[in-house]
Amino acid sequence: MELKFENFAVLKNTLALNLTPFIKKNFMKKYLLALLMVFSFTSCETAKSIMDSVGNGNLTNTEVVQGLKEALQLGTDSATFHLALLNGFYKDDMIKILMPPEAQSVEKSLRNVGLGSLVDKAVLSMNRAAEDATKYVGNIFLNAIKQMTIQDAFGILRGGDRAATDYLKQKTSAQLTAAFTPIVSKSLDYTDATKYWKDIFTAYNKFSNKPVNTDLTAYVTQKTLDGLFYHIGLEEQAIRKDPAARITDILKKVFANQNTKSGL
């Protein structure tokens, strides 16, 4: 049978009209599928890069978050417990609160005229105030630790030796300062630090034409925070570097994985 050109043209147009919706429909499906694959790949690639950064993918998100929270909880509990004890600050040369820099000339002058004991009493009282204030940080740290996200946890795990401490410091410093200030002020009054401070500068101002007026509460509050985070940092470094400091299974798993990856 001979197919005439005119019949062929009609057949072609008919097929085109009938198949066009089918082609368009399938094209749209493939197009949408491709878009979904791109978005999925992007999010999966992000997750994969995170997982690759902590080892061979043996850790789940939940384990990383749990491990970092536990490390912070352990570090804050240990630091606050020891620093809140008698002489927790006063007998620790690394964090002992001394006279403020602007008052060191005052201290020297007073010691030179036989009033060193007055300075010693003021220093002791400042450290007693820090030890007292440290007892009240628990809930603030606990709330910050509970709010840790997956992104926070992986950032901490991939960070330096003080990454968890720096996270906690960033999240809690303002709140701790606000909470510590009235406690420190009350403790300074209770331990007679304010009295000794007033006595020191009353005595000093008799020999100087430049009176000194330092905000003792703000100074002791900041030094208390500095000492607290210093010791939390030490606890974190121990957990990261010393397997013996990892006293729970989740700590062993999370930080052993980190050590393997980093070559520690």
- Provide the number of structural domains: 2
Q: Strand-residue fraction?
A: under 5%
What overall form do the CA principal axes indicate? elongated
Low-confidence stretches: 1-12, 14-56
Q: How does the major sheet shape up?
A: none
Distance between the termini: 83 Å
- Count of runs of 4 or more consecutive helical residues: 10
Radius of gyration: 33 Å
Number of strands: 0
H-E order: HHHHHHHHHH
**Which range best describes the helical content: under 10%, 10-25%, 25-40%, 40-55%, 55-70% or over 70%?**
over 70%
- Given helix and strand content, the structural type is mainly alpha
| Average pLDDT taken over every residue | 78
Sequence-ordered SSE layout with sheet pairings:
Layout: H1 5-53, H2 61-83, H3 104-112, H4 116-133, H5 138-146, H6 150-158, H7 163-190, H8 193-205, H9 216-241, H10 249-262
Describe the structure.
By secondary structure, the chain is mostly helical. The chain folds into 2 domains: 1-53; 61-262, no CATH class. The protein contains 10 helices and no strands. It has helices at 5-53, 61-83, 104-112, 116-133, 138-146, 150-158, 163-190, 193-205, 216-241, 249-262. The chain is elongated. 31% of the residues are buried.
